[in-house]
Design a protein that fits this description.
It is found in: Cytoplasm. Residues 288-527 form the AB hydrolase-1 domain. This protein has helices spanning 17-45, 51-70, 73-98, 120-123, 125-147, 153-169, 180-189, 192-207, 280-286, 308-327, 339-354, 383-393, 401-410, 413-416, 418-426, 435-440, 448-460, 463-466, 498-505, 547-552, 562-572; strands spanning 2-4, 233-238, 242-247, 253-255, 259-262, 291-296, 332-337, 359-365, 398-399, 429-431, 446-447, 470-471, 474-475, 485-490, 512-517, 535-538, 555-558, 576-578, 591-592. The chain has 602 residues and is of the alpha/beta class. The chain folds into 2 domains: 2-30 and 47-199, no CATH class; 233-397 and 445-599, Alpha/Beta hydrolase fold, catalytic domain (Rossmann fold). The strands form 5 sheets. The protein has an 11-stranded mixed β-sheet with strand order 17-16-15-14-8-7-5-6-3-2-19, with helices on both faces. A two-stranded antiparallel sheet has the order 1-10. It has a two-stranded antiparallel ribbon with strand order 4-18. Strand 2 and strand 3 (242-247) form a beta hairpin. Helix 5 runs antiparallel to helix 6 (153-169), helix 10 crosses helix 11 (339-354) and helix 12 runs antiparallel to helix 17. The radius of gyration is 27 Å and the shape is globular.
């Protein structure tokens, strides 16, 4: 995951006190810089809006959990007795080990838990005691959440989430004095690792404008247009909402039907063109497709009132108009990824109601239209939390990109937060240059009106699935969408779960090819065929069955879903024409891909 930035320190049996003293002095100096970076925004702008609301929700949720347990004193006493019993057993086992006797562990870490891989967590009785005490406590806390009677599902989900965050933060692996590997490293380097880590901590707090922007990759190693987002193409259209990229052909002929990609505006589009080895866009071009991709603007305060409808009209519809101008084709195959797929589905329902025929076929990549079984983000969705987000957006007109990035990281804290905290800020190791994590750390802002609409109308009220959503007074009915739909879900997706995608696929009125791919929200989509990773499942069974029944009869195919999708599209529109060069279209190119909007850093 990480590498040491400075030269390797010399081996030393004893601490060099002179060097240790110098490093402690430097550590204090760097700590002062980190403190100053944290305080500067507070001094200039005052406390950030919404922090008290976040803490208040944690306290409220945990109070509701405690109240349910206190309503049944006998059960509460039994739960406390179980915790006490486990600690007494641990204490007894630890005393045996200290006395030289063998003793079986009371609790063991999961084999996939990377926090406790160092041999001393098992071999050293003291560190083994600390580890087991932590595991006993966190397991007990999780059981308390699951065992609370009468707790509504949403409150239980929030309690489960908060317990997970607290437990991950309090892991002994996160602290210098309770992590044997960190202690060894610090002694070996005479504290130089802590100096490097504190320096990077100060830099990352400054980069986050007073909040810690965790360093997951080396940002200096990636440059748009040079080693990421490098598929050749031209920006052929631009408005205040988006730039439209047309990619240069790689084959003599192409399918007549152009392909338009509508990525999410929560992230930047280049996840689909991350590098030549993993680029979905580059692969599509190589299959003989004329590929267009929307690159959304990174909104500022001037776009605060932009709505979902604006994204549809000034994004999707404007892109289709530009494609028609440049290719002469009025209809295109459209791909919507994540929230881009949600917006595409709304647009399809709107066009169906209006009799507008602009789309040959639609592809939805991990996109939800029925949010009744939405993923882990549902934990943040209730009236109070949405109101707090809206209050936070009000002064500036948008939600900071880092807020969304932090939210997604918090869904997997043991993978995306604490390993980097330990390796970067305590071990003093700069992370390896990893393109996917660089993209993850390059977020976009969210226009206030659009984000509020998405949270309320989709996540909170589920209005599209319930038939309660309208545009221009026209009710949106997905059942009237009769064109072919290719709906991709990924089996380990915690943002758009396969169950949620499956429910949404049942709402369309035409033929739907549901495909379930291996892995998660990003890796399951960005899975090139030559890697031969993961697998995907397909079935001719009716979508009306439960997901479990559908999967039970599904065919598993090793490798990437990309070729399956290409065969599906080619069968629908097989006609070919000479390749289209963006340099020779009716629209004059404005600049080279990847364009200018994607360059704006939040």
């Amino acid at each position: 995951m990480t590498k040491t930035t400075d030269k390797e320190p010399r081996d030393a049996g004893l601490t060099d006190l002179d060097e240790l003293s110098r490093n402690i002095a430097q550590l204090v100096e760097e700590a002062g810089k980190a403190t100053a970076a944290y305080l500067r925004p507070l001094e200039e702008n005052g406390p950030k809006v919404g922090k008290a609301d976040e803490v208040s929700d944690v306290v409220k949720t945990m109070s509701q959990l405690a109240e349910k347990w206190m309503s049944n004193p006998q059960k509460a006493i039994e739960a406390q007795a179980k915790l006490t019993s486990n600690f007494l057993a641990l204490w007894s086992a630890s005393l045996k080990r200290l006395g030289g006797e063998a003793s079986e562990p009371i609790v063991s870490a999961h084999p996939r838990d990377k926090r406790f891989l160092d041999p001393e967590w098992q071999d050293n009785p003291v560190f083994d005691f600390v580890k087991q005490a932590y595991l006993i406590s966190t397991t007990w806390a999780e059981q308390i959440v699951e065992g609370a009677e009468g707790l509504d599902d949403h409150t239980r989900d929030k309690a489960r989430f908060y317990v997970k965050q607290i437990g991950s933060a309090l892991s002994p692996s996160n602290f210098l004095t309770t992590n044997p590997e960190l202690l060894r490293e610090t002694v070996r380097e005479n504290g130089a690792n802590l100096v490097r880590g504190m320096k990077m901590l100060a830099e990352d707090i400054k980069a986050g404008n007073g909040e810690l922007k965790i360093r997951q990759s080396d940002p200096t190693r990636f440059k748009l247009g040079e080693n990421i987002a490098i598929t050749p193409g031209k920006v052929i259209f631009r408005n205040e909402m988006m730039e439209l990229i047309q990619y240069a052909p790689a084959t003599a002929t192409v399918l007549r039907c152009p392909v338009l990609i509508v990525p999410p505006w929560i992230n930047k589009y280049y996840i689909l063109d991350i590098n030549p080895d993993k680029s979905l866009i580059r692969w599509m071009v190589g299959q003989g497709l004329t590929v267009f991709c929307v690159s959304w603007v990174n909104p500022d305060a001037s776009l605060a009132s932009k709505s979902f409808e604006d994204y549809m009209r000034e994004g999707l519809f404007a892109a289709l108009d530009a494609i028609e101008q440049n290719t002469g084709e009025k209809r295109a195959a459209v791909i919507g990824y994540c929230i881009g797929g949600t917006m595409l589905s709304m647009a399809l329902a709107y066009m169906a109601a209006q009799g507008i025929d602009r789309v040959v076929a639609a592809t939805l990549l991990t996109a939800q239209v029925d949010f009744s079984r939405a993923g882990d983000l549902k934990v943040f969705i209730d009236e109070e939390q949405i109101a707090a987000v809206e209050e936070k957006m009000k002064p500036v007109g948008y939600l900071e990109g880092m807020h969304m990035s932090t939210t997604f990281n918090m869904l997997r804290p043991d993978d995306l937060i604490w390993p980097y905290y330990v390796n970067v800020y305590l071990k003093g190791q700069a992370p390896y240059p990893f393109d996917l994590l660089h993209w993850n750390s390059d977020p976009t802002r969210m226009a206030a009106a659009t984000h509020s609409f998405y949270l309320r109308r989709c996540y909170l009220n589920n209005d599209l699935a319930r038939g309660n959503m309208s545009i221009d007074g026209i009710k949106l009915d997905l059942g009237k969408v009769t064109l072919p739909v290719y709906s991709l879900a990924t089996r380990e997706d915690h943002i758009a779960p396969a169950r949620s995608v499956h429910l949404g696929a049942r709402l369309f009125g035409g033929p739907v090819r549901l495909v379930i791919a291996g892995s998660g929200h990003v890796a399951g989509v960005v899975n090139p065929p030559h890697k031969n990773k993961y697998q995907f499942w397909t079935s001719d069974a009716p979508l009306g069955r439960s997901l479990e029944e559908w999967l039970a009869g599904a065919k598993e195919t090793p490798g990437s879903w990309w070729p399956d999708w290409h065969r599906w599209l080619e069968a629908l529109a097989p006609e070919r024409v000479p390749a289209r060069d963006p340099d020779h279209g009716r629209l004059k190119p404005l600049c080279d891909a990847p364009g200018t909007y994607v360059q704006v850093v939040s």
